[in-house]
Design brief:
With about 300 residues, the chain is an alpha/beta fold. It contains nine helices and 13 strands. α3 packs parallel to α4, α7 runs antiparallel to α8 and α8 crosses α9. The radius of gyration is 18 Å and the shape is globular. Helix content is about 35%, strand content about 25%. The termini are far apart. It has one domain: UDP-N-acetylmuramoyl-L-alanine:D-glutamate ligase (3-Layer(aba) Sandwich), CATH 3.40.1190.20. The structure holds alpha-D-ribofuranose (RIB). The site of alpha-D-ribofuranose has 14 residues, from β2, α1 and α7. Alpha-D-ribofuranose binds next to β2, α1 and α7.
């Protein structure tokens, strides 16, 4: 089967805790609400690609449990091809506790569960059955699945986008097979040791990432926009001005939108302009995958 984008990545149930402020260490406090919604970086990215209008398949693993069933059904309803999602009898569905405070900032704690059971053999089997122009991958499944997918994609001449998230999942070998990396400030610090405080420090970090052998780099600077580094040229793309309500999955929405627009334009700066609008809209409203904008919502913003 042929797709525009294949996403290999995590599929989680998110337990969202909406709180005015973080509790102090050891404290117990009442919060505004606790809700369970579909998440996972891979799933969020696949939904972003689908809502923005491209044909996408998600490769990943959930448990053979009620959360796993619910997450697969949710992905289907959002237009993601789920035929290559494995349901593990051994491991449960990945589950993350996501704390969102009144500034929209989020802090997470999670267990990878079945995401970590994805094997080289699982990946190779799928890649023998599919084709795509772009592989979009993050670092929340097993290390062997990440390397196997990136190698298989390179062999098939796919453009490999590695979103090196979360920082806790980063390992160096993966950088050998990436055409593009899209780290945020925390991930950039983890990889390069550089604190991104402005465009100059983002450029310094981008050059360091480029020296690791990664041709194209996007350093995400949050509300300060993104620095695109390609062929020795740096361009800063501004973020759109919004009141941040919920930042959960904003990076995933951005990654999916970059893949989507890069397919159409073959121009990374144009792709980042499009993705900045998509991520900005996402951040301005609450909710998980439901708050990822559709193609017409992004286009509407762009013609304003
Ligand atoms: O990027 C946000 C996602 O990270 C959440 O949905 C959570 O499940 C973790 O994968």
């Amino acid at each position: 089967m042929k797709y525009d984008v294949v996403v290999v990545g995590s599929i989680n149930m998110d337990v969202i805790v909406d709180t005015p402020a973080y509790p102090a260490y050891g404290d117990t406090v009442f919060c505004n609400s606790v809700s369970m919604i579909p998440g996972g970086k891979g799933a969020n990215q696949a939904v972003s690609v689908a809502k923005l209008g491209k044909k996408v398949c998600l490769v990943g693993a959930v448990g053979n449990d009620s959360s796993g069933n619910e997450l697969i059904n949710n992905l289907k309803s959002k237009g993601v091809d789920t035929s290559h999602i494995i349901q593990s009898d051994k491991d449960g569905t990945g589950t993350f506790v996501v704390i969102v405070d009144s500034t929209g900032e989020n802090t997470m704690l999670g267990t990878k569960g079945a995401n970590d059971s994805l094997s080289t053999a699982d990946i190779e089997k799928v890649f023998n059955e599919i084709d795509a122009k772009i592989l979009l991958i993050q670092m929340e499944t097993s290390q062997e699945s990440i390397i196997a997918a990136m190698k298989a994609a390179k062999k098939r001449n796919m453009y490999v986008i590695l979103d090196p998230a979360p920082a806790d999942g980063i390992f160096d070998e993966a950088f050998k097979y990436a055409d593009l990396v899209t780290p945020n400030k925390q991930e950039t610090k983890r990889i390069t040791g550089i604190d991104v405080t402005d465009a100059a420090s983002a450029l310094e970090a981008a050059k360091k990432l480029n020296e690791l052998g990664i041709p194209d780099v996007i350093v995400k600077m949050g509300e300060n926009g993104s620095l695109v580094y390609q062929n020795g040229k740096a361009t800063v793309v501004d973020a759109i001005k919004v009141k941040a309500v919920d930042t959960v999955g904003a990076g995933d929405c951005f990654a999916g939108a970059v893949a989507n627009a890069y397919l159409d334009t073959k121009d990374l700066v144009e792709a980042v302009k499009f993705a900045s609008v998509a991520a900005g809209i996402k951040v301005s409203r609450s909710g998980g995958q439901d708050s990822i904008p559709t193609l017409s919502e992004v286009q509407e913003y762009l013609v304003k």
